[in-house]
Amino acid sequence: MRRFFHTFITTLIALISLTVAINILVDPYEQFYTTSITGFNGEKYNSGSRITKSLKVSKNTFGTLIMGTSRAEIGFKPEHPAWQNKPVYNLSLNAASMDEIYRVFQYTLAHNPPKSLFLSIDLLMFNQHNELSIDFEHSLFSGHSVWRNTMQSLLGFNALNQSRKTIRRNMRGTSSYYTSTGQRIGQRVFTDLIGSQGQRSLFWRALTSQYIQNTNTYKNFVYDRNKINQLKHIIFICQKNDIQLYLIIPPIHALQLETIVQMGLWSDFERLKRDLVDSIQHTTVPVYDFTAWTGINAEKLPAPEDYKARMKWYWEASHFKQETGDKVLNRVLKLSKENSFGKQLTAQNINIHIQNQRITRSTYLQSHTKDIEELWLTLEKNGIKRNIYSFETLSPAS
Amino acid sequence: MLFNSYEFIFFFLPIVLTVFFAIGRSGYFATAMAWLVLASLFFYAWWNPAYLGLMITSILFNYAIGQTLSHHVQHPHIRKGTLTLGVILNLGLLAYFKYANFFIDNANHIFNTHLDIGTILLPLAISFFTFQQIAYLIDVSRGETKEYNFLHYCLFVTFFPQLIAGPIVHHKEMMPQFAKKSIYRLKYSNLAIGLSIFAVGLFKKVVLADGIAIYASPVFDSAAGGIAPGFADAWVGALSYTLQLYFDFSGYCDMAIGVARMFGIRLPLNFHSPYKATNIIDFWRRWHMTLSRFLRDYLYFPLGGNRKGTTRRYINLIITMVLGGLWHGAGWTFILWGALHGFFLMVNHAWHAVRKFLQHDLSQPSHIGTIISRLITFLAVIVAWVFFRAEDLAAALLMLQGMCGLHASNMTMPTESLSYIVALLAIIWFAPNTQEWLSRYRPAFDYPNNEQVTLPRWVPVWRASRSIAVLMACTAFISILYLTRDSEFLYFNF
Predict the structure, then answer these.
(1) Could you tell me if A68 and A250 are in contact, meaning their C-beta atoms sit under 8 angstroms apart?
(2) Rounded to an integer, what distance in angstroms lies between the CA atom of residue A168 and that of residue A162?
(3) Which residue, A138, A143, B36, B90, has fewest beta-carbon neighbours within 10 Å?
């Protein structure tokens, strides 16, 4: 029995030590500041995970934090010259819910509060069915102690698996999708996705699989106004602590807007805009809406057979390029005087803005008949009846 | 503190064991006992130190009642009165913390009143330590056990391997073991067996139970939200929960037995392959065995058991099981679950009576008969678990309708859930349980005669070999890799 006990303990200690050594050496979450070796662990692939981002903001103080979903994560560059409070970190999280944004904000406030916060708002953040992701549960944002988080990074199955993937991808020479400042590099992500089938194909594939078929996005969407209270609390805390807050609704392609209309969520989207304006009443917080049916947002798709053509402003309907993000930042951070892109919303202009958007939609439908026809066909194939909404069938504009 | 936590595995357990044996080796047995009590109180207070006061008060009160019954009162009426007072106050404590909100809510509903006493939080383990001490008081009043030493009594109640979720032990089972000097000396055999049982239990909990839980919760949560599950989803949800609960509780029981064994203590068997049961009577002899024993000895028998005729027997069964259901939680779903099991037991006894009348030999079932009986029993247990798990009666009915195919038959749950379910069903029906696997080493206090256990050929018999040690270490290692999920044992809520 003594031999059994010693073999058991020795084997267990050996396996645990090996795991700890691998995870420290590879350091997939950039936690232990281990030496980076090209071809082994030089490129980190988890920089966008909630685990890594929570570690980043727990250890560093940033002048500005960019928060939002993958749109903000891809589109907004922390190195943009217009930022006033530096350094800037892109703390946006893939498919973030308002619950997550709220808890991440509270976490940063408790640890290293920024001087300004750039919050990119998406409709899906307010989905009643949104829950915390597993990645979030394992991060410091969830309230776990640093001790527990460290143990998970040393001994967790996920950490070991990520170490394995890090070594494998480094050996293959795959580059990371993230910059050290938290931005996801659209060029790398989408070049692989576009592949030989061209950008038009990706555009429709992404819209169909992510928004028309996916049961976690528009299909079962229920607008939860309680989540607006979380946003209001963020606004209140920012005002109280002199944190400069910017709220923006980021640009999305007109065909994505039409998908929102066709899936019966346009009233919710308008409701959200009104709620945003209502939330900033009596504050100095600006709200900008960069959604539109014109200009950049109505960018033409590459021709069906043209696999090499690339769009200038969009990767696909949901994700705008960094060039578009730069224009947003120029506008909001006042680097440029040009004001044709994006609209600052106020209690005075919200009704007119909503009305104008409805009018420009109808113009878009008439001028982009082929794209619209393709969208409606795609919707019908997926069991969604075409709805030629007129202004009357939507809720009143005021 | 959870058994399945880094703190417990890497710090608490090694430190408590080392200090216990260091003190024991020096011959200070009382000090070693005191160390175990202190460690157990720390273990309990880890969640919420505020609960500690309540448990200590309960211990002091019951010890005083026990002393009175043992040594000071001889008059039968006064003894009976003292015992009644003790039991009522114990049940009163449990009723306040566990059932007050439930009764007030129902009273408000019935009488259209608006009484509000706020939300009373359930102190951890209160159901277990209260029942254990009630059993002690009754045993003392019957003259079956007595305790002179307060430290011993504290250890009997607080011994951390069984403190939070059982097994519910008898004083006479535990204290003679602590009285043996041999347990205070480190024995490698106890460590080897204890570690093996603990490793298997940990694997059951963190890999199997927590792994299948992800398929159970979404279905029951949807039903709670009024969404009717389809046929496939409803079965995936119900089967997943049936398996989750099995491996969760089985894992906990193994871990409790394993940890106690490292200290040289054998806890009573609490879980013995219940889904292999061929009828509901058999099921309750295998599931949460120490609770069944408590309910039988201190409720069913005092109610008259089967000595007052068939009708009275059935009534007693229903009462016992309904109260057993209520013990698990203050809710109508638990009451219904208990009533359903009471009904199943009634049918089972009636069926046996019919077969005896027909002069069937119940002790010699056919192979096919055994398989059919096992499947019917399993089906009955699943149906009852739906009530047990569902948020409310409406959700339970939605689930059952789904299982009967009354809703659409589409499947939204991932298809890998099916292979997971099949794999776990194979384990529960065809693999030996931990006690059978270690049967040569008397793994539990009251484990039946171990010589009769025959393991399937494909199972390597547990012995103190290097290969088994490596296998067990790998099992423990894989489980430790999965400790990242922060999940309590289901039975901690009861």
Answers:
(1) yes
(2) 10
(3) A143
Q: From the list B6, B192, B484, which residue is nearest A5 (CB)?
A: B192
- Give a three-class secondary structure readout of A269-321: HHHHHHHHHHHCCCCCCCEEECCCCCHHHHCCCCCCCCCCCCCCCECCCCCEC
Neighbours of A306 (CB within 10 A): 12
| pTM for the structure as a whole | 0.81
The answer to whether residue A165 sits within a structural domain is: no
Among the ranges given (A110-114, A211-215, B15-19), the one the predictor scored with the smallest mean pLDDT: A211-215
Return the residue in A7, A132, A136, A148 with the most chain B beta carbons within 10 A, the one to mutate for interface testing: A7
Whether A30 is in a domain gets the answer no
Residue entry with tokens 């909503």: A354
Q: How far apart are the first and last CA of chain B?
A: 16
The residue whose two tokens read 């973030």 is A96
What pLDDT sits at residue B190?
94
Q: Do B482 and A157 touch (CB under 8 A)?
A: yes
CA angle B58/B63/B66 to nearest 5° reads 125
- Report pLDDT digits (tens) over A27-37: 988 888 788 88
Which residues of chain B are at the A interface, by a Cβ-Cβ cutoff of 8 Å? 6, 187-189, 191-192, 195-196, 412, 464-466, 468-470, 472-474, 476-477, 480-484, 486
Put simply, the answer to whether A1 touches B191 (Cβ < 8 Å) is: yes
For B318-342, letters b (16+ CB in 10 Å) and e give: bbbbbebbbbbbbbbbbbbbbbbbb
Residue A144 lies in a domain: no
Q: Are A11 and B470 contacting, i.e. CB atoms less than 8 angstroms apart?
A: yes
- pLDDT value of residue B352: 87
Of A7, A15, A158, the CB nearest to B466: A7
CATH number, domain at A239? 3.40.50
What string of DSSP letters covers B416-436? HHHHHHHHHHHHHHHSPPHHH
Which residues of chain B does A1 touch, with a Cβ-Cβ cutoff of 8 Å? 187-189, 191-192, 464
Report the candidate in A122, A127, A99, A318 with the shortest Cα–Cα distance to residue A219.
A127
Counted domains in chain A: 1
Helix (H) or strand (E) run with residue A344 in it: strand A343-345
Report whether A63 contacts A88 (CB < 8 A): yes
pLDDT digits (tens, 9 = 90+) for B39-97: 999 999 998 888 899 999 999 999 999 988 887 767 878 888 889 999 999 999 988 98
Contact between A157 and B481 using a beta-carbon 8 Å cutoff? yes
ipTM reported for the complex, 2 dp: 0.87
Q: Are B235 and B476 in contact (CB under 8 A)?
A: no
Contact of A359 with chain B, judged by CB distance below 8 Å, is answered with no
Q: What is the pLDDT of residues B457-479, one digit of tens each?
A: 788 788 889 999 999 999 999 99
What is the domain extent for residue A187? 62-131+176-393
Dihedral angle at the C-alpha atoms of B100, B101, B103, B109, nearest 10 degrees? 160
Tokens of B135: 């059993």
CA separation (Å) from A252 to A223, A260, B170?
Answer: 19, 11, 68
Could you count the other beta carbons within 10 Å of the beta carbon of residue A304?
Answer: 11
A214 has a pLDDT exceeding 60: yes
> DSSP string covering B438-488, please?
TGGG--STT---GGG----TTSPPP-S-HHHHHHHHHHHHHHHHTTTS---
More confident residue, A66 or A129: A66
What integer pLDDT is reported at residue A101 of this predicted model?
96
Amino acid at residue number A187: Q
pLDDT per residue over B94-118, tens digit each?
889 888 888 888 888 888 888 888 7
